[in-house]
Amino acid sequence: GIGRNWPWASGGSSILAEFGTLHLEFMHLSHLSGNPIFAEKVMNIRTVLNKLEKPQGLYPNYLNPSSGQWGQHHVSVGGLGDSFYEYLLKAWLMSDKTDLEAKKMYFDAIQAIETHLIRKSSSGLTYIAEWKGGLLEHKMGHLTCFAGGMFALGADGAPEGLAQHYLELGAEIARTCHESYNRTFMKLGPEAFRFDGGVEAIATRQNEKYYILRPEVVETYLYMWRLTHDPKYRKWAWEATEALESHCRVNGGYSGLRDVYLLHESYDDVQQSFFLAETLKYLYLIFSDDDLLPLEHWIFNTEAHLLPILRTGKKEVEIREN
Ligand SMILES: *[C@@H]1O[C@H](CO)[C@@H](O)[C@H](O)[C@H]1NC(C)=O
């Protein structure tokens, strides 16, 4: 019954992508059990976040549970932040678009992200940087690549006139992440890539050159494919599939790679659980028809497990009223 936080997390803070990634599951649990307590718990998280002052409209990655104040002003759409934004959007979608508070929080958040974190490189690649107390680190993590799919998935609920813009932003992020794959020898992307010191979409530090079978890039290809049917997304997904077969297949399974720029595989000897749950699931769906797990009926949670979109009766009421 006692909670403790990571000692490294900004003075014992809680992490945005942890407390912000309970919403879908807890709402569904209340729906299944008929017990509202789970929904009440996660709604309180949202109430707390709504009341807090946000620097430049951004959500820092750390929040101290004792003081109720933000920790370090680090903002990221990658590790520590990512799925918080994903769950705002998906809370709105899973509620049959009745959860308008989630919708507003999502579009306010991504507007601030676009203003303060999204930049274009000199050759025209759009990327999402990391924000540290107002200074930008021009680095984009593989984890951050999921955001292309998120922008596209939310596009048709965007404030007036912005739907096409968010779909295009999703496509631009997908293109940048594809470049990060294409600029390696293995044709699989590094853990993080940079846009500084004359490089674009390339990992420059040895400890950012690994690929551990992560799904975020093919996740974005799936949403882009479903929403645009531009055949390049299937082409890019097939390149990744072939690269996985050529470079990650080992006796007994698939392994991560220690350095995607080397001419020879150096295996880490680990098959992460998200490889089956996410990476292969998204690839399978890209090469399936749209009526297999249609996006109108299913939400993929942040580990690509399925949750049904709740039919609130809103649509039926609309039909009856008409
Ligand atoms: C991918 O890389 C290949 C070989 O380096 C290059 O010829 C090709 O133009 C690149 N494709 C894209 C879309 O950048």
TrEMBL record:
Enzyme class, spelled out: hydrolase
SUPFAM superfamilies xrefs: Seven-hairpin glycosidases (SSF48225)
Residues involved in Ca(2+) binding: 302
Entry EC no(s): 3.2.1.-
Annotated localization: Golgi apparatus membrane
Membrane topology classification: Single-pass type II membrane protein
Protein's pathway: Protein modification; protein glycosylation
Catalytic activity: N(4)-(alpha-D-Man-(1->2)-alpha-D-Man-(1->2)-alpha-D-Man-(1->3)-[alpha-D-Man-(1->3)-[alpha-D-Man-(1->2)-alpha-D-Man-(1->6)]-alpha-D-Man-(1->6)]-beta-D-Man-(1->4)-beta-D-GlcNAc-(1->4)-beta-D-GlcNAc)-L-asparaginyl-[protein] (N-glucan mannose isomer 8A1,2,3B1,3) + 3 H2O = N(4)-(alpha-D-Man-(1->3)-[alpha-D-Man-(1->3)-[alpha-D-Man-(1->6)]-alpha-D-Man-(1->6)]-beta-D-Man-(1->4)-beta-D-GlcNAc-(1->4)-beta-D-GlcNAc)-L-asparaginyl-[protein] (N-glucan mannose isomer 5A1,2) + 3 beta-D-mannose; N(4)-(alpha-D-Man-(1->2)-alpha-D-Man-(1->2)-alpha-D-Man-(1->3)-[alpha-D-Man-(1->2)-alpha-D-Man-(1->3)-[alpha-D-Man-(1->2)-alpha-D-Man-(1->6)]-alpha-D-Man-(1->6)]-beta-D-Man-(1->4)-beta-D-GlcNAc-(1->4)-beta-D-GlcNAc)-L-asparaginyl-[protein] (N-glucan mannose isomer 9A1,2,3B1,2,3) + 4 H2O = N(4)-(alpha-D-Man-(1->3)-[alpha-D-Man-(1->3)-[alpha-D-Man-(1->6)]-alpha-D-Man-(1->6)]-beta-D-Man-(1->4)-beta-D-GlcNAc-(1->4)-beta-D-GlcNAc)-L-asparaginyl-[protein] (N-glucan mannose isomer 5A1,2) + 4 beta-D-mannose
Gene3D superfamilies: 1.50.10.10
One Pfam family hit: Glyco_hydro_47
Broad class of where this protein is predominantly found: Golgi
Gene Ontology process terms (BP): carbohydrate metabolic process; N-glycan processing
GO cellular component labels: endoplasmic reticulum; extracellular exosome; Golgi membrane
Disulfide bonds: 145-177
Cofactors (names): Ca(2+)
GO molecular function, one term: mannosyl-oligosaccharide 1,2-alpha-mannosidase activity
Keywords from the named record: Calcium, Disulfide bond, Glycoprotein, Glycosidase, Golgi apparatus, Hydrolase, Membrane, Metal-binding, Signal-anchor, Transmembrane, Transmembrane helix
Family: Belongs to the glycosyl hydrolase 47 family.
Protein name: alpha-1,2-Mannosidase
